[in-house]
Amino acid sequence: MKFNQINWVVIWEELYHWSSDTKEGAKFNSIYTGQAVFTTMSSIGWKIYFLEDHLDRLLDNALVLDIIDTKKIKYLRKELEELIFRLNRKVYNLYSIDMEIKVYLSKNFFNNEVIYNIFFLKYPNIFRKFFKKWIKLKVVKMKRLIPETKNVCFLVSYLAQKEAIQSWFDDALFVENDWRIKEWTTSNVFFSVKNLRGDNVRIITPNRDILFWVTRKKVISLLKEEGFQVEERDVYLDEIKKYLSCSDYEVSSFITWTTKTVIPVKNIDNLKFDLKFSKFVRDLLRKKYWDLEKIKI
């Protein structure tokens, strides 16, 4: 079976788990209803990448879902930051490998206390293989629940992904009924449009009904530093089709993913994209933010 036909549900190897909830049976009690948010970070050696950005987004999302109130944010942020930093050193000293850190915030139904669970996970080898590839996306008219938050309601994403895989695609691209592009099932999407006559490149990315992921923020900042024009606005599928149908333009697409990378998009339905610029952005991100000798992807 080719990798492109494998479902994205991957068994992660859990290295360490810490929970603020000591009552058995009450753990993750609100996760089942979707009243929980999470964030995913990369730990390379003892360094946790973009820890502050991830905690900011995590706590903002927790406010939206009424998991915490504003009075507790400052205290909780400090506690989480110190705890994650300390646990990261502990786990790294035990295993000496690069890890993914997942932090979940939920609410205890019985006493309304905030519960946080922290997982340290080993990267599946299958991901390293995937980083060198491109993906094909199928257009699906769906929307994640409360899309501005990174919550645990993954049913919509799962159903969209399942539909895409059954049609021999890797995953799905969410669009509205008017064909306004939103996001990939678990991340953001970008388009680059190069005018072959003027040689200028514009980067276009949706900015409505999406989650503003940390990697998205870093990629936009990096592209602006490199002198590229980045447009955060509504993007419609017909607009992309128009650029692709014109020989004056070279169009690329890529998605940004928390786990250290940009992934080139080769197809969206029957639309074919050039891969050169998306690979350029991927390599640029790696050189800027990641230790390639350690990651080896």
Account of the 3D structure:
The protein has 297 residues and is α+β, with helices and mostly antiparallel strands. It has two domains: 11-123, Aminotransferase class 4, branched-chain amino acid transferase, N-terminal domain (D-amino Acid Aminotransferase, Chain A, domain 1); 128-291, D-amino Acid Aminotransferase, Chain A, domain 2 (Alpha-Beta Barrel). It contains eight helices and 14 strands. Helix 4 (155-166) links the parallel strand 6 and strand 7 (171-175). Helix 1 crosses helix 2 (70-95). Mean pLDDT is 82; it is low at 1-11, 24-28 and 291-297.
Give the N-to-C terminal Cα separation.
Answer: 22 Å
Helical fraction equals 25-40%
Order of helices and strands: EEEHHEEHEHEEEEHEHEEEHH
Top-tier CATH class of the largest domain: Alpha Beta
Beta-strand content estimate: 25-35%
Strand runs, count = 14
- Can you identify the CATH superfamily of the largest domain? D-amino Acid Aminotransferase, subunit A, domain 2
Would you give the CATH topology of the largest domain?
Answer: D-amino Acid Aminotransferase, Chain A, domain 2
Query: Over all CA atoms, what is the radius of gyration?
Result: 20 Å
Number of domains: 2
Principal-axes geometry comes out as globular
Largest sheet: 9 strands, mixed
Low-confidence stretches: 1-11, 24-28, 291-297
By CATH, the architecture of the largest domain is named Alpha-Beta Barrel
Determine the number of helices (DSSP H or I, runs of at least 4 residues). 8
Helix-strand makeup class: alpha+beta
Average pLDDT metric: 82
